[in-house]
Each structure stands twice: as C-alpha cells, then as structure tokens.
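Record type: ASSEMBLY
Status: queued
Input:
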Amino acid sequence: MGSIVLVARLVLADVRRHQAQAAMLLLAVTVATATMALGLSLRSVSEALYEQTRTATAGPDLVALSGETGPAVTSALTELAGSPGVAAHHGPYRIVYADLTTRDATSSRVVVHGFAEKPAAVNRPLVTSGQWIRPGGTVLERGFATALHVGVGDRVTIAGRPYPVVGIAVTAATSIYPGASQIGPYGGPSDYSGLAWMTRSDARALASSHDLPVTLAVDLELRDPAATQAFRDAHHDSTVRINFRSWQFTAQQDLAMLKGSRPILVVGSWLLSFLAITGVAALAAGRAVQQTRRAGLLKAVGAGPGLIATVLLTEYLALALAGDALGLLVARLTAPAIASPTASRIGDAAGPTGATVVTATVLAVAVAVLSTLRPTLRAMRTATVTALTATPHQPRHRPHLTALSALLPTPLLLGLRLTARRPGRALLQACSTATTVIAIVALLTMHAQQERGYGLNGSPVLPNLRGEHDRRLMLAVAILLIALAVVNTITFTWTTAVEARANMAIARTLGATPGQVSAGLSIAQLLPGLPGAVLGVPLGSGLLSLFAARNAVEAPSSWLLAAVLATLLATAALTALPARLAARRPVARALSAETA
Amino acid sequence: MNVSRAAVRACGLVRTHGEGQSRVRAVDEVDLEVPEGQMLAVMGPSGCGKSTLLHLLGGLERPTDGQVWVAGRRIDTLSERALARMRRRSVGFVFQAFHLMEELSASENVELPALLAGRSRRQARRRAGLLLERVGLADRARHLPSQLSGGQRQRVAVARALVNDPLVVLADEPTGNLDTAATLDVLRIFEELRTAGQTFVIVTHDERVAATADRLVSMRDGMFVDDTRLAGSTTTGLGGLGGLIGLEG
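Status: finished
Output:
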C-alpha cells in the first residue's frame, strides 16, 4: 500500500511539473484511440442502427419483388404470403418508378410504394415528423427528404403531378438512401433512387397516368427470421421470376455506404498512433537525463528495479489509459453520426464492443510503452552513482558530414551539424513529415475523384453522399494528423534547441549571428523533412491504391508538388518561432548554465 | 586617452543583475583602456564581477550603463548581428570550461570560427593545422575533446580563439580547470603570443597567470581597486614565466 501511495505521489508530482507533455500525450492517445475505435465500431454501429430501425418499423424478414406485373405475379406473391413459414405479411403492393422534382428544381429518381392508410402488421414505416399518408399527399423517406432539403408542408412534383409532403418516415424494408430501388423497372438494374409513399389509389393513378414502370412486392415476416435463405430455397418458382431481399442483405447494404470509411479511420488511427509515438518519444528522450538521475536517486534510497520501472512508466501508462478512456467516449458519442450518414436509420449506438475496447487499449499502452521504454530501461540499467551524475548522451563524431557541412553557408553548416547530432530524431522528423504528406495526398486524391451524383442521370445537384462522407472523414483525419505533426515539429525543434543550447551559445561566441543560429535550427528540421515529404507522395499513393476503386484517378502531379512545397514551407514557418526564441537566449547565461 | 590605439576601451561601465532589494551591481562604474599588444590580467575574489566584465567587453552581455569600444568601434549599441560579426573579426574567447564542441575533432573545433567568418574549407583547415602545431597539438588534430587531457583541450580552445587573428583574446579563468603542468603549457603559449603582440584580457584567480601579464587590475564588488604595471613582464616576455617556473621549483 505504501508503495502504491509513493508511486502515485511521485507520478502526480511529475505530471504537475510537465503539464504540457502530459497534455500532449493525453491528446495524442485520445485522438488515436477515438479514430481506431470509430473505425472498428462502424460495422456494429451500423448493424445496431439497422436493428433498431427494424424493430421500430416492424421490418420484414424478407421482401419478395417481381419486375413483372399481372395476375400471375400477384397470385405467386399472394401464394408466397400464405406459405407455412410466413407468420405475417404486407402486400402485395405497387412500386412505381418516377422522377421527383422539388420546388427549387432538384430532381431525382424516386420509387413510390403504394401503401394502405392504416399501418399493416409488417413494414410499418415510422413517421418521424408530420403524419402518415393520406389521399393526395406523399410521405418521403427521411434520408431522401434530408438530401432534398424538403420538409413537411413542402410540395414536390412526382411524374409531373404536384403532391404536398405530409410526413417524413423511416423504414427497414429498403436499403438506406439512395438504395431504395431494390430492383429496377421491369426487374432491370436499379439506379440511385429515393423512396416515397402514397396511398394505394394514388400510386395506381400515378402509374397509369404516365404509363410508368411498375413492380410488385410483398413484405414477409417469417416464423424463423434467421431462416431467410432456407425460405428462398424452398420457394423458387420457375414460372414467375421473384427476387428476394432478406433483412440480412439490407443490413449489409447499409454498410456499403461505409465501405471507404473504415479504412480511412483504421489506417488513419495507425498513422495517428505513429505520430503520437514519435512526438512522445522525442519528449521522453529530452527528459532521459532527468529520468536517469531520478532512477539513480530512487536506487540510492533503496528502491528496487520493479519500483523504479513502475515509477518511470506509470506516468505515461496512466496518461495513455486516461486518453484511451477519453477516446472511447468520443468514439461512442460520434459513432451514430459517422455510421449513419444518410438519416435513413434511427436509434442510438451501443458502446464499443469488448474487442474494440481491448484493441484501443492495447494501442494506447503501445504508444506509452514504445515511446518511453528505451529511456526507462537505460535509466534502470545505469549504475547508481553514474545515474546521479548523468549527462546528456554525447553525439557521435561524423567526420564526413562535418567536412561536407564546411562547404556550406553558415545556416546550412549549423543545420546539418545539428541534424547529425541526433540522427534518431531526424528520422522521427522525416517520418512525421512523411505521415503529413500521406494524409494530404489522400485528401487531394479523394478530391480528384469524379463521382456520379444522386440527381437525375448522375447529376451532382444531389451530391454523392458516400463520397461526401468519405471526404469529410478524410478531412477530419487529415486535420488531426496535421495537428499532431505540427505539435511534433514544434516539439522536435524545441528539444533540438534545448539540447544544442550550449553548442549554439559557443557558436555565437565564435561569431554566429542569432539569425544564423535560428536558421540553423529550422534547417535542422527541414533537412530530414525534405526526404520525408518527397517519400510521403509515393507512400500516400501506394497506401491509397490498396483501398481505392479500380477506376480511381490519381491527383494531378501539380497538386502533389504543391503539397510537398506547402508542407516544407509550413515546417519552416513552424520551426521559426521556437528556433528564434532559442536563438535569442543570452549567450553568457547559456554558457554559465552549461558550466554549472 | 587615444581611442584609436586602444584594442578595448570601457567608460563608466555598469552591469546590474536582479531586481529590487536583490539588485546587485556586478560591474560598477568601471573605466578601462587596453592598448594593442598589452596583456591585462584582472584579479579578484569570486563574484567580484570579473567574468561579467569580460562578457561585457566581448559583447556577450549588454551593459546597464556606460560604453564599450572594441577596435575603436562602440559596441554596446550594436545589434546582436553586428556584435556577432564584431566577435568574428576582433575577439577570441578562451573559457575555463573550454566549451569545445564534443562531437567535433580538435581540428574541426579550431576550423569552426574560420568557417563562420566565411573562409573556405581549405583555408580554415590550413589555418587550423598551423595553430594546432603552434600549440603543440598537431598530432592530436583528429582527436575528439573527450580523448584529450584538460590542458590539451584548453590549448585547442586557445588555437580556436586565434584562428581569425583577433585583435584581442578574452580569457576567462583559462587555467582554472588545469593542473600545474597544463597551466604551464598554456602560459607558455600565452607568453609567446604576447611577445608576438597579441592583446589579452585575462580574468583569473591564479597569481601565476597574473604574473605573466603586463598589467594587473584588481577588482572587488564590481569596481577596480588597483591598477598595476608589471615591469618584469613588459621588459622581458619570459621573465614572468621564468619567475613562475622558479616559484614552482
């Protein structure tokens, strides 16, 4: 108990002394775990939303559709509804294929379901605003209405006939917008369509007035909802062609909208974790001497290796676990919006699954351990007396780089020599820059894609929601990545400046100007950033190609070149302030501190 | 007072540290002129302001009041950039803690000021080679500071201070970290340089060092309390050092 209290007090004291570092670790882990938890939760959240909608709307287990009409089809569907395995049914009902135009001239394909004014036992759309259908009025599916920016009381034109929108509703019988058309006219291929409901008589009148294509459907509730495949196999009719859509299929179709979201979030979380590790590792390396002295002090007063490791690692682990909890909470709160981009489903998402919690926690612990294990082990292994008088690790002599730098102007000479002092940190800076460029390349490539809109004939007047959703997610992930990379760049510059404080002070006594020292510190970040930025382009393109569609186009080279240049310019700008602050430190004070 | 012939000149120099009741006048109304070719030793107890005075003369710190001239140019009003250029051309520093760059060899440390002054790599290397030979370390040119003794490190620092042919060398306790043998090595080099006309301002606790100077200034509480010309040193350069060796013997 005493040891636990001691560790807690030491950890709290250390966190208070290094609040900025603690905040950075907390933020980085929160962002990484939230993104990963979201990516891993999308499927379960989407399924949960479908399931809740299905429960709320008495969603059918099977929808049987025929592209043909006529007595034989009606008879076949009616016979199907009376089968022994069917517990309840709704229909047969008409599905009319038409065009819908709003008052602001936005047009889209629409499938109109002719329903009874009184809800049936199966497939009872849930009215979320307004009221259910009445003669002369139409109810729009919520995802469709949201995309059209249409609400209750607005008027829409369907196949040239005006209808007031009397209600907005959701259903689990069809896929989410724009997948309402489960089969196309006459059983052919379907197009992006929204869903509207009318009374049976209005649907019949609509179809006959313009001789519009019509299909028939019946909604079935099975005695065994899981046995949809067995029911289909048992009711294969060779005379009438009937298509079945099971609830499992519809739930799966919901995920099609999220096809691009999962890799964006999961790969994004890897990159965010990587940046978190690089940033925290740089900070931990900067504190290595202090940690070693602390370990020496603990050893001197009788602490064993276990207690020392606990004290040194607990701070990072505790912060990482706090970040993990925060990340999971963020994922829990944002998951419904991200997993349901169309408003076609209702309900709340359950919390992340056990597997997601475990994976996110492993990630958080990995960030903490990977970034701090090396300095911790070094501190533990150092002999007590040596640890108490620990000094910064001396950089290696690099005669070739030193000779090369002698040929360069002073800022480059200083920058190259600073880079050579800490090659590990230079590598981290290169990786951080490459990660930033990977994110930018992904963002630019996604914006370069040509997409078919959801309007009539692929018109972009109704945007492609899947593409929009993916781009929004990619933008959010890219912003997080760039934000972490910015923090890393400032951290690297400041840590480099602090470690090289004495050397830079010496250089100033020898005649280097503050401007040259400041430029040297910036260049020390830019030099590794340059190959990182250049490598980021093929790495980003390669990573995207793993998930991209076959017909995906690459971003124009001019965009990519601009991204590389912008990244380097941003790095220069970001390093300028900490470098300038470091270079302005009085020389005499820096030298005195070194001597002390 | 002939300003043009003074390597370094200070007038009414004041430097205070701290605020309020903890305010300390580290250098208090100091007037000083060091003619070219003179070796000036500044002595005094710890904390009397010797090092601060040296920093003010080299432009590493700015005076609270008063003026400083180096090579006839007033430097207390210069920008940091101009001060850096002035140091490149006119001032060489030697510190008690050597302040060598640990990741650079002896030769590379000596080359650095020459490179900062815009000399080519070849010129810098040739000059560094000559100076290392002059301080007796030609065979240690490729050694890192960690592979050199304290005396050798200080000789590298002296070579580095001289690489741009400065008008004045400012040395802060140059023998403070050295044993007797190393001290004698460094003093021998200073003596040779003084004979060659190099101007020095040396801050020291060590009377053996002070004995090699042309002139000795004593400091206490930030002020000069004594200013003595040391005749033996001015007449024969090796006299002081010879006396020193005699004392040691």
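Annotation: Residues 185 and 213 of chain A are 6 Å apart (CA to CA).
Annotation: The mean pLDDT of chain A is 86.
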